[in-house]
Amino acid sequence: MREHSEQQHEEQLRGASDAGGVRAYLLHRAKPHLPPWLGVGGAGLAGALGSLEWSSSAAAGVGLTLASVALTSATWWAGRSTSQQRRLHSAITMAAGSAWVTAACLAGPTAGPLPDLYLMGGPALALSWNVRMIMRRSVDGTTGQGADKGLLEKVGLARAQIGAVKVDPNRVTAAVALEAGEQTNDDVAKSLARIASALDLPTTAIRYQPDPASARRGDLVIVPEDMLAEAVEWTGPSNLGGSIAEPLVIGRYDDGSPLLLWLPGDPEAERNSTHVLIAGVSGSGKGDAALNLLTEILSRRDVIVWFSDPKMFQDFGPLRPGLDWAVEGGSGTEVMVEAVKATIPARTKWLGAHGYRQWLPEAALTQTSTKHTCRKDGTACGCPGMPFLVAWMEESANTLRAMGDDAFTGISQEARSAGMALVVSLQRPSYDQISTSTRASLPSVIALGCDERDEGFSLPSRVLDAGAHPGAWGNRRPGYCYLVSPGIPEDRYASPARTFHFTIRSVSVLEVLASWAQRHGAPAGPVTAQAAARVAGQLYTGRAAPGTDQPAPGQAGAEEGEMEMDGGPLVDPEDAQLDPDADLPDPEPGDDVPMFGQQETGRKPSPEEARALLARALEQFESEGRMVVGPKDFTDWCDANNYSRPWVSARLKEAALEGRLEPTAQTGRWRIVPALTAA
Fold first, then answer.
1. 349 labelled ligand-binding
2. Is residue 491 very low, low, confident or very high in pLDDT (cuts 50, 70, 90)?
């Protein structure tokens, strides 16, 4: 209100054009500069009056000298909270004025050089303060530093100095220099909430970016208007047919600039490749953030996606035909994780053989360059290209509970060198959900709203100190997020952003995008496809052909798993060779003893019969796409065939020695080696 009334008064003064208005305008302009001149006049009057009382008085001389020293010292002490220049200027002014008054009172204001000192020194001191006041004013005539100092005093940073101020649309950046030896950048980080309170802004509108080369300098960034309040609807991918090496646009910052993310590295830009963590509580917009990222990935020409979703593709169903491999959790996810692990060395070997230190867009093309050849004679090899691979683990808390919190540790530590990116999505990336080793190997994070106590699980401490506060949103502002990733300037890490919003109108566009990916997306390539097939067998089929539906993983068609009713056999295939007229075999010891749980009872088959029975069981599991098994998967099989689970455990170990099974990271779980590979 006070600023408004002063502005109104200023406009009135400027608008007056008569003689009275001109005088009022000049007086208004002169008022701020009058105090130094009034001080000079007051000093002359004090000297003249004092000479009448204390002329030639020795006692008065002592008292006036002590008073002069005391006033100068008090001025120096009072200026301790101001700048060094202002403190020194004030002390010199007080010392000069009090010394002249003392001399004038004892010898008279007209004695010796005192009149000359007064007439020359007085105006000089007054003008020095006028110049100082003018220099403090900004271009538009407002006293910026005084207001800034007042603000900093309120928040406990009175000794800090405000430097150059840069004003952008909806963004003000001010350089801050703290008092040497007394204040650090941590003091500013702790004061951000109070600064927001003083400016009447939300805490997320204020952030501080420390200078990496200094412990007491940085930039204070203020965004006065929340441009993210209105959600922007997603209308389609930003770069259809582009390369995955180009930036992915997944939203916008609070100043309107695009929210960009890179997955592959770039040696020329000195940017490393990355894995991504998407974290946020239920209702924070994690699904929209994932859709933004996935649609950008699928719209690129040189990338394939392996996707695991225990939620049965509730959010991602329209995009499923464009995925190279899709599973719905459970055993299928176990197989996919094992396939990703097996694919890493195969892809790394291919890149090294073709002279790539890391994946580049050229690696996805047919290798016609002599710089990237696997032939020893240096001629172009013509090998098929190898696209970038994204392994996406949606709602990964489900997978981590089933496979252990370190299920992705090896992948996260090794996959980047193989031209692969791991995307992990979960609500709470705490140490009891995901191992600290895995979390440390996920350099990028899209941090949506969370519980205030969980902020440290999502964002690095330096980003939180700079003013990031995802706990302020919770699930009240869907889509609001912070993005930390290679390639993004560090001063952007604490800038709030918001992903694009998906509506029911987006479904048709998603279906068109999936169809485009089916027709124009990159094939997996022989290196990746063969490595996956060696682990997953027929569970890995690659992307569905255009115009076809992706078969549900783990489910066979009627010709494989169901009995035919129209003129076909009415018995199970495994019983097709039985002769119904043959006599039953003679009873064997143990046939009449039931099998329950872990009991070591029941009929014990011969070693040859045991291997044949287990081989048939493994073939059945393989035909169903269940490529990772353990004793618990044989429960129904044990009941049907009257064998115990400990017996099965022993047979599984024998099969592993024969090369039919491979151990996994989980104790007691085995990966089936496809029959052709084992042979």
1. no
2. confident
Same domain, 382 and 303: yes
Q: How far is CA 392 from CA 124, 274, 288, in A?
A: 74, 13, 15
Q: Which CATH number do you get for residue 604?
A: 1.10.10
Is there a contact between 243 and 435 (Cβ–Cβ < 8 Å)?
A: no
| Other CB atoms within 10 A of residue 468 CB | 24
Tell me the percentage of the chain whose pLDDT exceeds 70.
82
280 is in an annotated binding site: yes
Half-sphere exposure of 286 (CA within 13 A, CB side): 24
Q: How many CA atoms lie within 13 A of 377 on its CB side?
A: 3
pLDDT number for residue 5: 46
pLDDT digits (tens, 9 = 90+) for 505-556: 999 999 999 999 999 999 999 999 999 988 888 888 888 777 665 443 333 3
Exposure letters 194-208 (e unless 16+ CB within 10 A, then b): bbbeeeebebbbbbb
Structure tokens at 150: 């007042």
Q: How many CB atoms lie within 10 A of CB 127?
A: 14
Same structural domain, 109 and 164: no
Pair 186, 88 in one domain: no
Enumerate the H helices of 108-201 as residue ranges. 114-136, 144-154, 185-190, 192-199
Enclosing domain of residue 328: 248-539
To the question of whether residue 471 is assigned a binding role by annotation, the answer is: no
Counting every residue, how long is the chain? 679
Kindly state whether residues 157 and 18 are assigned to the same domain.
no
Number of domains in the chain: 4
What are 570's two structure tokens? 């009415």
Name the pTM for this structure. Answer: 0.65
Token pair in block for residue 183: 């204040």
Identify whether 634 is part of a domain.
Answer: yes
467 is in an annotated binding site: no
Residue 266 included in any domain: yes
Residues in a beta bridge with 501: 233
User: Annotated binding residue at 281?
Assistant: yes
Q: Which of 478, 468, 520 is nearest to 501 (CA)?
A: 478
